[in-house]
């Protein structure tokens, strides 16, 4: 690649870094309002990082080069790395006494909307830090949507829910101009956050807690303002149902939500991945609630609320917790571990393998089996009424194989660092899927990653970035061929 591409990529990342630095003024204002001395940390961080970003942007300012796929891959990786590094600075300088590995892990977890944390004592943490975590979640969610809706389809590594928007048939496009579409999805994102905050406040949360939890919910992030997460609000079943609703809504394709809410297109809700996602949410939740009722004697209405909340939280890769579900029984632990990999829909803020890939993989296997029976027959791989072309099939299969190999490799490295098998596998899986809590007591819904060593935290940070950037987006820049002219 030529120097102009590097220069432009750095300029774009620096400009983004400048905006992120300015956003540090919001948690600074929160600390000032609540009388926390940590406001100075955000003020210094905003000044230093903003100045560095502005200087870099000015030094690399030039005319834009022709946009290529190579530049797209480079910009995406550089943007997310810069946001994570800048996001780590306030954590590192705060009164929480984090070393840089912990601060970087917390920032990566926030920006990638994973929700894993190394902070113990959230109930007494500075309010500015709590707001910064939620704000990074929220901004990361916008970045994820932009990635899935606008960039991934062009790079051919994801974004199937955007199929109609990139179709050559203009009648299938929801808006004639992409700027209108962008404003629509930002408006819906903001409105979902506001409605979530208002609902949470009406159901018993303070306004500060409600806003933080709403930002985490819509971004399917999972950071809470309390160590016990939603368990802090004991016996508030309406709150659990409300959170389940907003987590489910945020796991659906935003392109479909826009067509439904703005254009009133009911037919968009027939998207196969929506049907499949809602089906396995209901199946897993009902199975978990029946197990809780029959094995542990929990009243069914209570078991159903907690089961739907927990299952939705894991499948949407949000990571909130209302209880320590690792104590419910071995069946629930296995269910939670399987759900960790599955994820929500493409074009949403959810992570994981995603429902559309599961559909294509299932139909690919079925087509292969049919071909064994009738070798001369035509057995197309379909996604609903759409015939999936060979390139998409190959990319889905490549993603799945890479995903599982990376998960295995991450588990092996964590094992070499001294962690037991279940903790290693669970930590690698939850990081790669951007879920948050694992399924062992140490890193489960009632634990944190605070006891992890610095090398383990750096490894998990890398896995979180891999998972959030759809794996292939990162792997492609690690190949020597990518850097050749």
UniProtKB/TrEMBL annotation:
Gene Ontology CC, one term: plasma membrane
On the tree of life, the source organism's domain of life is: Bacteria
A Gene Ontology molecular function term of the record: potassium:chloride symporter activity
Against Pfam families, the record matches this protein to: TrkH
InterPro entries attached to this UniProt entry: Cat_transpt, TrkH
Give me the residues that bind K(+), please: 113-114, 221, 317-318, 434-435
Q: Where are the transmembrane segments?
A: 12-35, 41-59, 71-93, 135-155, 184-203, 239-262, 274-291, 303-321, 328-349, 395-417, 456-483
Keywords from UniProt, A to Z, are: Cell inner membrane, Cell membrane, Ion transport, Membrane, Metal-binding, Potassium, Potassium transport, Transmembrane, Transmembrane helix, Transport
Where in or outside the cell is it found? Cell inner membrane; Cell membrane
What the protein does comes down to:
Low-affinity potassium transport system. Interacts with Trk system potassium uptake protein TrkA.
* UniProt family annotation: Belongs to the TrkH potassium transport family.
What is this protein called in UniProt? Answer: Trk system potassium uptake protein
Source organism per UniProt = Rhizobium subbaraonis
Q: What is the lineage of its organism?
A: Bacteria, Pseudomonadati, Pseudomonadota, Alphaproteobacteria, Hyphomicrobiales
């Amino acid at each position: 690649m030529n120097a102009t591409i590097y220069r432009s990529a750095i300029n774009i990342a620096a400009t983004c870094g400048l905006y992120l630095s300015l956003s540090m003024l919001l948690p600074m204002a929160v600390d000032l309002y609540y009388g926390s001395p940590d406001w100075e940390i955000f003020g210094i961080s905003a000044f230093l990082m903003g100045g560095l970003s502005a200087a870099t942007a000015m030094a690399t300012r030039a005319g834009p080069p022709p946009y290529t796929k190579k530049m797209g891959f480079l910009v995406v990786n550089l943007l997310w790395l810069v946001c994570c590094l800048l996001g780590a600075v306030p954590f590192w300088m705060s009164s929480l006494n984090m070393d840089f590995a912990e601060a970087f892990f917390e920032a990566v977890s926030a920006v990638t909307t994973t929700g894993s944390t190394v902070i113990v004592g959230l109930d007494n943490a500075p309010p500015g830090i709590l707001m910064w975590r939620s704000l990074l979640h929220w901004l990361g969610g916008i970045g994820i949507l932009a990635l899935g809706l606008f960039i991934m389809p062009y790079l051919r590594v994801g974004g199937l829910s955007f199929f109609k928007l990139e179709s050559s048939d203009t009648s299938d496009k929801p808006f004639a101009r992409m700027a209108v579409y962008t404003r629509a999805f930002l408006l819906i994102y903001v409105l979902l956050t506001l409605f979530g905050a208002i609902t949470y406040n009406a159901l018993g949360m303070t306004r500060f807690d409600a806003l933080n939890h709403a930002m985490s919910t819509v971004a399917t992030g999972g950071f809470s303002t309390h160590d016990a997460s939603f368990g802090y609000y004991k016996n508030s079943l309406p709150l659990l149902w409300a959170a389940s609703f907003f987590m489910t809504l945020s796991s659906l394709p935003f392109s479909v939500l826009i067509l439904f809410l703005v254009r009133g297109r009911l037919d968009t809700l027939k998207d196969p991945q929506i049907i499949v996602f809602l089906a396995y949410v209901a199946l897993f939740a009902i199975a978990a609630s029946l197990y809780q009722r029959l094995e542990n004697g929990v009243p069914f209405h209570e078991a159903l609320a907690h089961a739907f909340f927990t299952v939705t939280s894991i499948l949407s890769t949000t990571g909130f917790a209302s209880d320590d579900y690792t104590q419910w029984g071995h069946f629930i632990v296995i269910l939670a571990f399987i759900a960790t990999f599955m994820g929500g829909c493409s074009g949403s803020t959810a992570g994981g393998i995603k429902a559309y890939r599961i559909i294509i993989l299932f139909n690919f296997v079925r087509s292969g089996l049919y071909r064994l029976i009738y070798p001369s027959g035509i057995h197309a791989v379909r996604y609903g009424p759409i015939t999936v072309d060979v390139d998409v099939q190959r990319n889905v299969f490549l993603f799945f194989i890479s995903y599982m190999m990376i998960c295995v490799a991450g588990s092996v490295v964590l094992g070499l660092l001294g962690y037991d098998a279940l903790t290693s596998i669970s930590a690698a899986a939850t990081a790669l899927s951007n879920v948050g809590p694992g399924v062992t007591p140490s890193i489960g819904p009632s634990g944190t990653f605070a006891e992890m060593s610095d090398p383990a935290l750096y490894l998990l940070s890398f896995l979180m970035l891999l998972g959030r950037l759809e794996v292939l987006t990162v792997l492609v820049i690690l190949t020597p061929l990518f850097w050749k002219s």
